[in-house]
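Help needed: design a sequence for this.
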């Protein structure tokens, strides 16, 4: 799954056009708090999901999770399975978390745009409930 950027995410493209610097500032102000990935090389949600100690220590404080990665995680936990995908689980590859939250008001109310929580919901419940994971895949 691609990381959101002004060229791949319709909402970001509408808001920022091709202004990558403005999109980066938006991520620093908003995206990180939602657990959105800023790079295909590192997944905040994947890192939290892969390591129970990180999840227990930081939960959904994604700025702290990112700080942990930069300060100690790269040395202690250099697992490539936690990078490049939201949850390091190939079943999540079909999920567009922004679409999923917008499509289902109950999820939006419960999770907002906290990507790791939306992905966890998809893996635990959404797929079994027949919910649509993205705009190209209809609900069952």
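Sure. Designed sequence:
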């Amino acid at each position: 799954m691609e990381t959101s950027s002004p060229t791949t995410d319709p909402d970001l493209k509408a808001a920022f056009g091709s202004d990558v610097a403005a999109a980066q500032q938006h991520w620093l102000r908003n995206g990180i708090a939602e657990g959105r990935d800023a790079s295909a090389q590192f997944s905040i949600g994947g890192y939290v999901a892969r390591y129970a100690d990180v999840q227990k220590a930081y939960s959904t404080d994604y700025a702290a999770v990112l700080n942990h990665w930069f300060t100690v995680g790269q040395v202690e936990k250099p697992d490539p399975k936690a990078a490049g995908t939201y949850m390091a689980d190939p079943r999540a590859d079909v999920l567009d978390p922004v679409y999923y939250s917008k499509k289902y008001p109950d999820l939006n109310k419960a999770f907002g745009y906290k990507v790791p929580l939306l992905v966890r919901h998809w893996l635990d419940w959404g797929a079994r409930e027949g919910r649509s994971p993205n705009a190209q895949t209809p609900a069952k």
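The mean pLDDT is 79.
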